[in-house]
Write a structure and sequence with these properties.
CATH class of the largest domain: Alpha Beta
Number of strands: 8
Order of helices and strands: HEEHEHEHEHEEEHHHHHH
Strand content: 5-15%
CATH architecture of the largest domain: 3-Layer(aba) Sandwich
Low-confidence stretches: 1-11, 238-245
Mean pLDDT: 82
Number of domains: 2
Largest sheet: 6 strands, mixed
Structural class: alpha/beta
Number of helices: 11
């Protein structure tokens, strides 16, 4: 287990399926198909193989959307990968309740030397931890064109009111203020969830996630965020984003 920990702290969340029988092979599924992350995972996997010559370690990088279906089928069939990518929260809790996910409590003290405690929250239920973050610890940003800002005398907004005023000016000049590829919908959810966080605070999400008394995804902050996106302020987003976000 100590050697496996070396892989995890290199590398959303990685979670462990409950082992059916002891086998000289481990299988890891993730959704890292492009960019810098796959080579890092592959390198860590090779280091694990070198340190454990009697154990085969297979790593499969799978496209995001097909991965979700493939994992659900594998879980239902009782043949999940030994280590798998997950986003925490409700979907992970369903797998936990079905008895297909193991805890990582044994190695959590070691991981806490590297991770901040809050990073375990999305994978912790009833005092037990089932996963560890390996990517997804980055921010979500707006990118803007400096030439357009200069052309219309705009500055980077620091408040919501300034942001709305900036978008109004761009729209008045025939420009769409925000564009977003939203075919898979989760990207558009960032608009909604970040706005909901500002409307209801971080505890609103945690209370709903952990089913605390009074906690619900129908809390007023979520409703208010939806109303803001769909009301007059919703005009800032392209119509297709309002329909599919």
């Amino acid at each position: 287990m100590k050697k496996l920990c070396l892989l995890l702290i290199l590398g959303a969340l990685l979670c462990f399926a409950m082992p059916a029988v002891a086998a000289p092979k481990l299988v890891l599924w993730d959704v890292q198909t492009t960019g810098a992350v796959p080579p890092i995972i592959d390198k860590a996997a090779q280091e694990f193989r070198d340190a454990n010559p009697g154990l085969e370690f297979e790593v499969d990088h799978i496209q995001n959307d097909p991965y979700k279906t493939k994992l659900k089928v594998a879980m239902g069939a009782g043949s999940p990968p030994d280590i798998f990518h997950n986003w925490g929260g409700g979907p992970l809790k369903e797998y936990i309740d079905s008895g297909t996910v193991a805890t990582i409590d044994e190695i959590r003290p070691q991981l806490l030397k590297t991770y901040i405690p809050a990073s375990f929250d999305p994978a912790t239920f009833d005092g037990k931890t089932y996963g560890v973050a390996y990517t997804g610890l980055t921010g979500v940003f707006f990118f803007y064109r400096k030439d357009v800002f200069a052309q219309y005398g705009l500055t980077v907004p620091k408040t919501m009111a300034q942001f709305i005023a900036m978008c109004d000016k761009l729209k008045a000049n025939g420009l769409i203020p925000i564009t977003l590829a939203n075919k898979t919908k989760w990207t558009g959810s960032f608009f909604y969830m970040y706005l909901a966080d500002r409307c209801g605070g971080a505890n609103m999400f945690l209370n709903a996630l952990y089913r605390k008394p009074g906690g619900s995804f129908e809390a007023q902050g979520y409703i208010q965020a939806g109303q803001k996106l769909g009301s007059r302020q919703g005009r800032l987003l392209p119509a297709w984003l309002q329909r599919h976000g």
